[in-house]
Amino acid sequence: MKKTNLGDNTQQTLLKGRGHSLRFSENIGELVANNLSMISNHPKMSKPAPSVNWCNIFLLVLIYTCVNNCYWLTLYNVTNLEGDKLVNGLILGLSEMISGIVAAFLVTFTSPAFAFQTCCITGVLFNFLNQFVFAAGSFLGYVTLFIAILGVGGVFTCLFVLIRVVVPKQQVGGAMVLIVTIAASSSLGAPLIALYDAPIPFLVLTGLIVVAFTSSCFLPKKLPDEAPEADEETQVYVEV
Question: Cis bond leading into 199, ω under 30°?
Answer without folding.
Answer: yes
